[in-house]
């Protein structure tokens, strides 16, 4: 099958996916009574008297199909609704919070994947020896740590004990004022990239300083995922005939492992790596909350907790599109890593 | 493409659709009101007085209510639930409000008296058979949970046959039960004032249409008349006596268990000077214009010279004075825009001039005349004119967003029956606020509004906006024909002004990074003289540990400290500047639902 028609087919699949997801989410939120859903609009005890009026204004007592119809016709006119929890249109909110999460994912994903591949390879190469056991125990230990606990401990040590060494949030106050000043152009709203584009070293270093703790937290917790996968995939490769051949013809063990076995063991890691990135981009709620690194995960979490349905639906749409795209990219990447794979399911 | 994967995808999708269609029918029709009787509520057991439940009108018996009031351990509640940070009150009218009666009688924890009243209740039947019901509280609210436990414990001590269980539910669900299905036996809610006047608490708690009393089935025409009479009394001594009487009435009728008036604290770094506490002030930080920052040494490092950094929780929804009705947004609006007058430091009944230099009330014509300060400029360079003031109030009333604060303008200006734009006409609104030379004249609906109206004008909703600027950004143009586009907006963003405010205040908006932070810059042309901070930064930080560490590291000058963290902060007290024993103008209270499963809001 041609690459282009493959891509088009996969993108067309988005339409039923998006429809299904939104109907489903809308259906679930309808299980809440209008008064439960109006609590989003009641920001203050003093508004309790206005509850019936608010329900009427926002049409919360309308039948399901009317409410869904209103929403979908709004979407077709290019308006995803209003995100109450952050006070801006949903469409703007996605673009407002995405850069923060991207910045986090941009730094954390490569570190996690490279570390995972390295540790996994080492563990497999030294199977059942102390190095293997050591890495596995460490990885499982990290994997089992609750994110909020690890995050808080890191914060208390590196921000509390070493007064102010590695602070939470994205930038310190003076740098924030620089970033928001007229001289600093925010091209991407990803602070590190903007700092480079503006040739501002101070902002760049400050942004990096604020990234250290959240990235460490994510790495410690997630690295086991990739590492274990890499290890088992590597073990499988090491048992294959071509590895035996390579060893038999007298290649150095380093070359056998790094070139022959590892390349072949990478395919499952690419799949998972793609999902890992997608999972990070759609939000790492706890890390974002503890370090006040407010990204799209924090926003979606706030929206869900407070029944901000327009935001939840907008987030779901974003997520569905993201996953379909990541899937597509991963599929295309397969063909690059392994020339035997052909799109369309024909294995040669 | 892998055919099998596609197939599975379609199956999952179809399953999702089917599932949602199954869910949908239950939602297309609003839930049928369930028939009254044994099954009308899951929280009153059998629904009868047979020892296995309570009848829906259980709490309509005065002795049941008084018995419960005596069975509640107030001291333990204050020490356990509020960490000692509270004072018991006899009625919803708390200390600090105009009309408060310091000698109001209140119930004490007294199981003997509880027993006496509960034995009398329901002609002794209750005592003999016992009862069962469930108390609900919103999950995560520990003080409310403790209150439920104390009431259950007290009742069980009086008579082992009184079995009260406790169950947490999400806040929206609780809200739905109080103001919708009405199937709770008791509910617990807090209240805070719009303006510091007894009427602002008595109406929601005691009027037959009140926010709470209506939903618990309390109040009648006679009581409504007494409430109106007290509010409308112009002899202040007489008025105080009438309010004392109403507070006693609340005690006698015991429609609820008034818990306690919370006491709050503020934790600043030692580098901040000039804080004073006015409980009605909506800014958690106090009035920043009267404060300053300089290096006082000490254990917390001095950082961010000239910048006030405040880390808090609570979102900012809009910066439009006509929209805001919550303290977080109100704090920002109060720094960017200004009112005609404001409370004089800690006072709640005397005022300092801001944009008005003087004011006078004529009881004969009901005219309130405000002389507007001359030479004041908005931060965009426009002059403040009396027309701006007229426009501000008319704009608010012609916007009248659902759930907004505008009723506080309609009531004093257009009369007790007028709660919103739909109850009146543009001509009447127009006539209520008029420009006369350099004065603005408000015509009140009654002379008794003389004090409360000034309190209303001190709220953030009464901040003055720039007419010329508003019109230039596409806001309401001041004519009747343009109202339709601005009336009853659904979302803050429907109003162009909402995130680009211009005011006369000491600070002006630099950036509002929504959901994250708001940075205000000094207004260099401020009429009132030098402004203490070059920047005021308010960050929304949900994580408590992060806020605490910021304060101790000097990265924040003030953080929001919830009452449950006061104990934890005691260890840090030596490093910080702590203001204690600040009474808040709010009250948490139990309400007895006297008509469980009463008519729902749809009816």
DSSP summary, beta strand count of chain A? 2
Strand content of chain B: 15-25%
Largest sheet of chain B: 5 strands, antiparallel
Helical residue percent of chain A? over 70%
**Greatest interface:** A-B, 82 and 81 residues
Q: Identify the quaternary structure here.
A: heterodimer
Secondary-structure element series of chain A:
HHHHHEEHHHHHHHHHHH
Overall geometric form of chain A: globular
Ranges of chain B where pLDDT stays below 50 over 5 or more residues in a row are 24-38
Strand order across the largest sheet of chain A = 1-2
Structural class of chain A: mainly alpha
Termini separation of chain B: 57 Å
> Radius of gyration of chain B from the CA trace?
27 Å
% residues in beta strands of chain A: under 5%
Q: Would you count the extended β strands of chain B for me?
A: 20
- Large-scale geometry of chain B: globular
Would you mind describing this structure in some detail?
Chain A is mainly α and 348 residues long. In chain A, 72% of the residues lie in helices and 1% in strands. In chain A, α15 runs antiparallel to α16. The relative contact order of chain B is 0.15. The model of chain B is unreliable at 24-38 (pLDDT under 50). At the A-B interface, α1, α2, α3, α4 and β2 of A face α1, α2, α8, β4 and β15 of B.
């Amino acid at each position: 099958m041609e690459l282009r028609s493959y891509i088009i087919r996969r993108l067309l699949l988005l339409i039923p996916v998006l429809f299904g997801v939104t109907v489903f989410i809308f259906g679930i939120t309808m299980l809440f009574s209008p008064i439960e859903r109006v609590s989003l609009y009641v920001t203050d005890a003093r508004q309790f008297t206005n509850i019936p009026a608010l329900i009427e204004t926002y049409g919360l007592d309308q039948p399901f199909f009317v409410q869904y119809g209103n929403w979908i016709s709004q979407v077709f006119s290019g308006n995803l609704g209003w995100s109450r929890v952050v006070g801006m249109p949903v469409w703007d909110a996605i673009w407002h919070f995405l850069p923060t999460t991207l910045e986090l994912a941009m730094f954390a994903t490569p570190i996690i994947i490279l570390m995972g591949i390295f540790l996994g390879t080492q563990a497999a190469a030294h199977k059942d020896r102390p190095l293997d056991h050591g890495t596995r125990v460490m990885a499982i230990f990290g994997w089992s740590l609750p994110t909020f606990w690890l995050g808080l401990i890191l914060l208390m040590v590196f921000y509390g004990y070493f007064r102010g060494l590695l602070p939470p949030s994205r930038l310190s106050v003076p740098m924030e004022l620089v970033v928001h000043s007229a001289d600093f152009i925010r091209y991407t709203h990803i602070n590190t990239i903007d700092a480079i584009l503006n040739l501002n070293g101070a902002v760049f270093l400050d942004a990096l300083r604020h990234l250290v703790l959240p990235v460490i937290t994510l790495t410690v917790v997630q690295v086991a995922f990739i590492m274990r996968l890499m290890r088992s995939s590597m073990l499988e490769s090491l048992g294959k005939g071509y590895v035996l051949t390579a060893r038999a013809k007298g290649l150095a063990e380093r070359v056998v492992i790094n070139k022959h076995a590892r390349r072949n063991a990478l395919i499952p890691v690419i799949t998972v790596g793609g999902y890992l990135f997608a999972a990070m981009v759609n939000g790492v709620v706890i890390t974002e909350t503890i370090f006040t690194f407010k990204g799209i995960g924090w926003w979606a979490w706030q929206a869900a907790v407070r029944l901000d349905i327009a935001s939840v639906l907008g987030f779901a749409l974003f997520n569905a599109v993201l996953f379909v795209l990541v899937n597509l990219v991963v599929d295309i990447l397969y063909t690059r890593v392994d020339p035997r794979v052909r799109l369309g399911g024909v294995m040669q | 493409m892998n055919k099998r994967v596609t197939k599975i995808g379609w199956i999952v999708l179809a399953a999702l659709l089917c599932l949602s269609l199954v869910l949908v029918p239950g939602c297309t029709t609003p839930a049928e009101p369930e028939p009254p009787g044994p099954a009308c509520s899951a929280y009153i057991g059998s629904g009868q007085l047979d020892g296995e439940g309570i009848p829906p009108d259980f709490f309509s018996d005065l002795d049941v209510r008084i018995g419960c009031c005596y069975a509640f351990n107030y001291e333990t509640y204050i020490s356990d639930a509020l960490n000692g940070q509270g004072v018991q009150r006899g009625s919803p009218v708390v200390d600090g409000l105009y009309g408060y009666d310091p000698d109001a009688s209140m119930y004490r924890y007294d199981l003997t008296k509880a027993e006496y009243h509960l034995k009398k209740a329901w002609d002794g039947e209750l005592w003999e058979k016992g009862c069962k019901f469930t108390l609900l509280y919103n999950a995560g609210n520990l003080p409310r949970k403790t209150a439920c436990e104390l009431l259950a414990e007290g009742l069980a001590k009086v008579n082992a046959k009184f079995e009260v269980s406790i169950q947490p539910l999400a806040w929206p669900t609780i809200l739905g039960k109080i103001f919708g299905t009405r199937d709770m036996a008791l509910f617990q809610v807090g209240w805070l004032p719009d303006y510091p006047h007894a009427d602002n608490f008595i109406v929601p708690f005691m009027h037959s249409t009140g926010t709470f009393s209506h939903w618990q089935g309390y109040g009648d025409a006679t009581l409504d008349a007494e409430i109106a009479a007290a509010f409308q009394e112009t002899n202040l001594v007489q008025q105080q006596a009438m309010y004392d009487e109403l507070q006693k009435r609340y005690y006698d009728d015991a429609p609820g268990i008034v818990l306690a008036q919370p006491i709050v604290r503020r934790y600043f770094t030692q580098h901040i000077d000039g804080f004073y506490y006015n409980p009605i002030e909506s800014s958690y930080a106090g009035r920043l214009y009267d404060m300053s920052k300089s290096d006082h040494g000490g254990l917390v490092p001095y950082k961010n010279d000239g910048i006030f950094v405040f880390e808090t929780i609570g979102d900012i929804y809009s910066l439009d004075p006509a929209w805001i009705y919550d303290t977080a947004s109100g704090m920002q609006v109060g720094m960017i825009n200004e009112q005609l007058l404001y409370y004089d430091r800690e006072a709640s009944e005397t005022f300092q001039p801001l944009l008005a230099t003087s004011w006078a009330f004529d009881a004969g014509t009901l005219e309130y005349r405000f002389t507007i300060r001359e030479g004041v400029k908005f931060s965009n360079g426009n002059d403040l004119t009396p027309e701006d003031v007229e426009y501000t109030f008319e704009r608010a009333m012609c916007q009248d967003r659902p759930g907004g604060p505008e009723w506080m303008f309609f009531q004093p200006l257009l009369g007790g029956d007028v709660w919103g734009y739909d109850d009146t006409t543009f001509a009447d609104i127009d006539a209520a606020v008029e420009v006369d030379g350099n004065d603005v004249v408000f015509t009140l609906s009654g002379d008794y509004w003389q004090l409360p109206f000034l309190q209303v004008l001190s709220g953030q909703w009464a901040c003055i906006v720039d007419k010329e600027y508003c019109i230039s950004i596409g806001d309401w143009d001041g004519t009747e024909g343009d109202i339709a586009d601005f009336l009853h907006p659904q979302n803050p963003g429907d109003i162009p002004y909402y995130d680009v405010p211009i005011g006369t205040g000491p600070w002006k908006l630099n950036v509002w990074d929504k959901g994250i932070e708001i940075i205000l810059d000094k207004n260099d042309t401020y009429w009132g003289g030098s402004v203490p901070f070059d920047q005021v930064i308010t960050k929304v930080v949900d994580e408590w540990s992060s806020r605490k560490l910021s304060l101790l590291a000097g990265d924040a000058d003030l953080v929001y400290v919830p009452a449950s963290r006061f104990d934890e902060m005691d260890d840090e007290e030596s490093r910080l500047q702590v203001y204690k024993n600040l009474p808040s103008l709010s009250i948490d209270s139990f309400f007895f639902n006297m008509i469980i499963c009463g008519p729902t809001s749809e009816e």
